[in-house]
Amino acid sequence: MGVVLPRTGRLADLGDPMSFVVELLAPTLRHITRGARRHPVRLVCRDSRSDPAAARHAVGELLREEGAQIIVTMAGTRVLPAVADTCEALGVPCVSTTFPWQAYYYGRGATDARPFRWTYHFAWGLDDIAHVFAQMWERLDGAGAPAAPRTVGCLWNDDLQGGFLRDARHGFAPVAAARGHTLVDPGGYREPAVDFRSHIHAFLDAGVEVVTSAATTADLDLFVAQAARQGLRPRLLTCSRWLAYPARGGRGRAPHAEHVATLVYWSPRHPYRSSLDGTSAAALAASYERRTGRQWLQPLGLAHALIEVAAHALGAAADPTDRAAVAYALGRTRLPTVAGWLDWTRGPVPNVATVPLAGGQWQRGRRHEHELRLVMAADCPAVAPDAPLLSAALTPGSGGPPSAS
């Protein structure tokens, strides 16, 4: 198994859970059994260096030098597609995650009639994010109040992320608008941002109640500081991407906006277990915190599931040394994992299995200064909310992870 992960560069924090999982599983995942035959297994990593070109080179190295039969990867708006595209071109099975499936599938050039042959993915969709965020906007007046449409300011960049969110057919915007919300989009900004005053003026003029974004924490910090100076105080800020993770710049430092709401795709409270050894989500998160001294983060469960899926495909393939047979097995995989039930036979498109989302919010914690609380089950009834949704108290922060690419 070849693992392409960012150990250095801008995305290094997001490679940390994958590194942890490889170190955790490598000592015990030594063989794959197929019928009467037992095949030795190695997990071999290469650093993407948070760069698309380096990621493509890493795939080539894993094939030439290690003879990888399958590649797994995660993280990076540009890095993940670079890995997947290279695998598709070179004819090696690949499994990836942590990237909205529409951006993965349509963004890489597949169509409903022309799927990929070698590359597979599991994640949530842009439509799923829109549904979860919209449900939180609608419940700002309390669980017992009628669902209310909102005027929502869109803080989206001018790059791939912003383009995917705005896409009229597959994006976030049409789903949120269809629920009755008014979206105010003043246009994209260039990352890293230097000034959000024009966006803030547009939001003030439109009477924005809620702001939604996929900004980096550094850009969100700038927005929060400038919004406070100009008198923009939205009732809620929903943000995906970096704000789905705990602040890592100072190891445990508070997120940049108190009570920022985000998506939840995995947590220690999810009632799932590993197909490899029965490890629960709670036990995996506890092991990570105990061994690293850092707060658990959502990609941890998906990183573990990547290895589970790869091991399953190798074991289910008619010949695990035949890459075409492994790819065929991937496309027929139905597997319970520590990240939930993954099923590539049901769509929504070929090559993709979906992960349901809940709604979360960063609130004052008991074990950590801020903890991700589940405030809405949304499309994930397997987990019950453990906190109410609170109105935003936007306060400027400092520092934080750099821009994701």
Provide an overview of this structure.
- The protein is an alpha/beta fold and 405 residues long.
- It folds into two domains: 2-124 and 270-354, 3-Layer(aba) Sandwich (Rossmann fold); 127-267 and 357-376, Rossmann fold.
- Helix content is 34%, strand content 18%.
- The strands form five sheets. A six-stranded parallel sheet has the order 4-1-5-6-7-15, sandwiched between helices. A four-stranded parallel sheet has the order 9-8-10-11, sandwiched between helices. Strands 12-16-17 form a three-stranded antiparallel sheet.
- It starts with a strand and ends in a 29-residue tail after the last strand.
- 54% of the residues are buried.
Provide tags for this entry.
single chain; 405 residues; alpha/beta; Rossmann fold; 2 domains; six-stranded parallel sheet; globular; disordered C terminus
Provide a brief overview of the structure:
This protein has helices at residues 12-25, 52-66, 79-90, 101-105, 126-138, 160-166, 172-178, 197-206, 217-230, 281-292, 299-316, 323-331, and strands at residues 2-5, 31-34, 37-40, 44-47, 71-74, 94-97, 119-123, 151-155, 182-184, 210-213, 236-239, 261-264, 334-337, 340-343, 352-354, 358-364, 370-376.
